[in-house]
Amino acid sequence: MASDYSTSLKIELIADGEQAGNWGTTTNTNLGTALEEAIVGYGNPDFTSDADLTLTLSNSNATQVARNLVLNVTSSVSLTTTHNLVVPTIEKPYVVQNNTTGGQSIIVKTSGGSGVTIPNGKSAAVYADGTDVVSQIDHIPSLTLGAALPVASGGTGAATFTSGALLKGNGTSAVSSASAADIVSALGTTPVNEAAQLTTTGYTIEESGGELLIKYGATSIGKIDSSGNLTVIGNVTAYGTL
Fold first, then answer.
1. What is the pTM of this model?
2. What percent of the chain has pLDDT over 70?
3. Same domain, yes or no, for 103 and 125?
């Protein structure tokens, strides 16, 4: 039986009695090129036209782009729409970097699969399972981020947060306070309308040391303790019986 390339990675299998005097050269190429590419290789597939790109593996243990672990995907032209990067239908992991020009996503897939979409400028770990390309990571038991998760990714954009404060968005991130008017706007409920009216006319009610403090601007004008006793700071004018 002659030597063949029946492996998924096209590593040359030497048959018994074959390649006398060349066995070492073939083995070194298998190990130093084919296997090394599959384990630590960095390939550079390039979209040379505004169309899908198909990567194939041929019967050779020489260097081949589709065999590499990392695929740094670029484009010689500016892509105008999402295109497919079609990889061989074998079992193989890939780390795909979408560094194409034109701002377009790419879909990494097999010829008969639906694949995984990778946005422009992003990287993803995927796996060709012999049928299709799927995401290689879909569960993270725990995670520590180096920076606050932005709103666009489902986070708050806030790195710190005051205990007991209310979330208030500013369009791009979360802040740690919200006024009565903000609450009314968000909930649209009647019970807090009075608090909103106080705020909008310059009056505020806040908790301080177990008491409710009534203020006009920065000036305290009264307080109510936990027993319901009212202390007025300033003059009291009564209209009727006090």
1. 0.68
2. 85
3. yes
